[in-house]
Automatic annotation (TrEMBL):
Pfam families: ABC_membrane_2, ABC_tran. Coiled coil: none annotated. Residues 448-663 form the ABC transporter domain. This is ATP-binding cassette transporter subfamily D member 4. The lineage of its organism: Eukaryota, Metazoa, Spiralia, Gnathifera, Rotifera. The keyword Transport applies. SUPFAM superfamilies: ABC transporter transmembrane region (SSF90123), P-loop containing nucleoside triphosphate hydrolases (SSF52540). Belongs to the ABC transporter superfamily. ABCD family. Peroxisomal fatty acyl CoA transporter (TC 3.A.1.203) subfamily. GO terms for biological process: fatty acid beta-oxidation; long-chain fatty acid import into peroxisome; peroxisome organization; very long-chain fatty acid catabolic process. It comes from Brachionus plicatilis. The chain crosses the membrane at residues 51-74, 94-112, 226-249, 261-286, 345-367.
Length: 663
């Protein structure tokens, strides 16, 4: 059990700093168990949604099958002794019924074991379905996927939203400490860190502000490992005490207390030998998993940036870096192999010595004439039966030891998944409280207003991008946002869209914030048909007779008619290729601009949406914006776009700004 809570505290792993605790060891253990049980309860709600759910029924069937399988295994194990007796007595009459019975039991044993494996895998799949779908629902709710992927070491959120004259102010300060490195694989990752520090909210940090590493890995890998581990070992945990007690009693009946005592001592001796050899290997596996992740990332990075690397003609440079990363992986793999040599040696020794332990134990009563009244055939049967019981009891203790080691993985995965559930729930609750204060006052003359607006980067340094901005955006007076790169133009859009709350002052909305359409410089293209790319982010709809000619006209107007040929002139046909890979940067911007025409928003935030197109196409884009009567704020660096705006909001490098009226 100490090994399990070493995992909880992170003691098994290198370079893990912990806040020292003055609590007594038992108190620390209790707090760790308390926190684990809290996360386990969250997971169990998904594993068993009701008593009549598919997972509950499958679990009961699995438990019954495991119990019956142990009974069948016991019966099969005794057949060897019975065959010894029948063959030694040359009893042909008893041989054939025994042979038929043994064959039947073997078939039943094989069938039940196959059913056990089938139900275990099926239960793991069902559990993964329940948890993953539940996580997905929360992951894509209230933009959780964005906030979990953009966490900072320190944050001092000052949220002031002013909608329809209602001031919503919420100040929450937090300081993130001991952030774990990203990119660590799950197998021997530092699992729980210092639970007591988290429970006490060190430095005033609340649980909802804890930085989570790799939320995508928690959903894709940790959930899978958790479901597989629970399905495999929980039934065994429930029946192991009874099975061990039964076989211990059977060995006691045969040779007395020396039978079960010898097995227990044998198990403890080898556990004490193998235990210290495991911890160093765990640390090496931790490093190896990290190197494996680095190597996979190198290949993924090469795939994503293949065209740029080819243009740079930097194949040799990338080859050297790739081989360097791979050599680091090989070196740690060699180290692991050498360290495992001694461990495997003692494991093999324990297995083979276990095979003859029964004969050493039986030698005592045999040579002390305890079984002198047994016939040779009866003694052969006794030796065979006891050998089976003793070896199976050793196997049960070994399995129990493996189960305890596996529990550490369950503890870690449960904590990681439960922590993610809790974090997303907190984000949703915060967003819900925030949305409840959004009272919409529809005014035809204005879109939004910034009052005493000071924007900061939400990281530890809290760099100020713009200070005390006061600006009122009137419908029809389109605004050009200009300034040097890095001065905060796109960051302003993040604040208006609600993605960044690292600002003071007020944002007053005169329209529903959900009606604001954002068009980034580098657009995202989802999987699906050409219609899906144009209608994004709306879900796919049936293409009406009126929409089809307009879309075809837009494609022709912006020089994208050749995309129709790629989809066999069918806007709803789903191709196998990746849209992001076949489109140039200019095509991406033109195709993403059609989303504005498709949705016809009242207000749009346009972030350098013409940076990769020619001036003629740029003129056409702005003309279409006027046709659909869309008010917009756009970020641009070209002077040629000024004529399409009435006001220029120019950011300077000294955190100030200028508001210029364009004639």
């Amino acid at each position: 059990m100490n090994r399990i809570f070493n995992y909880i505290r992170g003691d098994e792993y290198p370079n893990q700093t912990r806040t020292p605790s003055n609590r007594h060891k038992l108190s620390h253990l209790f707090e760790s168990l308390k926190l684990f049980c809290k996360y386990l309860a969250k997971v169990l709600k998904h594993l068993f949604p009701s008593f009549v759910s598919a997972s509950s029924i499958l679990f009961i069937i699995l438990l019954i099958d495991v119990v019956l399988l142990e009974f069948v295994v016991y019966r099969v194990g005794l057949f060897s002794g019975r065959f010894y007796k029948v063959l030694s007595d040359r009893d042909l009459v008893a041989f054939w019924p025994l042979a038929a019975t043994s064959i039947a039991y073997i078939i039943i044993n094989s069938l039940m074991k196959s059913i056990k494996d089938f139900i275990t895998n099926l239960l793991s799949i069902v559990w993964r379905k329940y948890i993953t779908l539940g996580l997905h629902e929360k992951y894509f709710q209230s933009k959780n996927f964005f906030y979990l992927q953009h966490q900072f070491d320190s944050n001092d959120d000052i949220i002031n939203v002013f909608i329809d004259g209602q001031n919503s102010s919420s100040n929450s300060k937090m300081q993130i400490t001991n952030r774990r490195p990203l990119g660590i694989q799950n197998s021997v990752e530092p699992i729980l860190g210092d639970l007591n520090c988290m429970e006490q909210n060190v430095n005033g940090m609340s649980e909802e502000n804890v930085v989570l590493d790799n939320p995508d890995q928690r959903i894709t890998q940790d959930v899978k490992n958790l479901c597989s581990s629970i399905a495999n070992i929980v039934p065994l945990i429930l029946i192991s005490p009874f099975v061990i007690g039964w076989y211990g009693y059977q060995t006691y009946k045969t040779v007395g207390y020396s039978g079960p005592l010898a097995v227990v001592v044998y198990f403890l001796v080898w556990a004490m030998i193998n235990g210290p050899l495991t911890a160093p290997i765990a640390r090496v596996i931790y490093k190896q998993d990290k190197k494996e992740g680095d190597f996979r990332f190198k290949h993924m990075n090469l795939r994503i940036n293949a065209e740029s690397i080819a243009f740079y003609d930097s194949s040799q440079s990338e080859l050297n870096k790739m081989n360097q990363t791979f050599n680091e992986l090989l070196n740690i793999s060699y180290r692991r192999n050498w360290k495992e040599l001694m461990l495997k040696l003692f494991i093999n020794l324990s297995q083979y010595f276990g095979g003859i332990l029964a004969y050493f134990v039986l030698a005592i009563p045999i040579f002390t004439h305890v079984y002198d009244d047994y016939s040779p055939t009866d003694l052969a049967q006794l030796i065979s039966n006891y050998s089976f019981k003793c070896q199976y009891l050793i196997y049960l203790f070994t399995r129990l030891y493996d189960i305890l080691n596996e529990i550490s993985s369950i503890v870690g995965n449960t904590k990681r998944v439960g922590e993610l559930m809790e974090k997303m729930t907190n984000n949703i609750n915060q967003s819900s409280r925030y949305d409840q204060k959004k009272l919409i006052d529809h005014q035809d003359d204005f879109c939004l207003q910034l009052e005493n607006f000071t924007l900061q980067i939400p990281d530890a340094k809290r760099k100020v991008l713009v200070k005390n901005l006061n600006f009122k955006f009137k419908r029809g007076e389109n605004v050009l946002i200009s300034g040097r790169s890095g001065c905060g133009k796109t960051s302003l859009f993040r604040a208006i869209s609600g993605l960044w709350n690292s600002y003071s002052g007020q944002i007053r909305y005169f329209l529903d914030p959900n009606e604001i359409f954002f068009l980034p410089q580098n657009s995202y293209f989802t999987s699906g048909s050409l219609l899906d790319q144009i209608s994004y982010p709306a879900q796919r709809q049936n293409l009406g007779n009126e929409s089809s000619p307009k879309i075809i006209e837009w494609l022709a107007e912006f020089g994208l008619s050749h995309l129709l040929e790629r989809v066999n002139s069918d806007l709803t046909w789903v191709p196998e290729f990746n849209w992001s890979l076949i489109l140039s940067n200019g095509e991406k911007q033109r195709l993403s601009f059609l989303r504005v025409l498709y949705h016809k928003p009242k207000f749009a935030l346009l972030d350098e949406f013409t940076s990769s197109v020619d001036q003629q196409t740029e003129v056409l884009m702005y003309e279409y914006l006027f046709k659909i009567e869309c008010s917009f704020m756009s970020i641009a660096h070209r002077d040629t776009v000024k004529k399409y705006h009435q006001i220029e909001l120019k950011f300077t490098n000294d955190k100030n700004y200028d508001i210029l009226h364009i004639n």
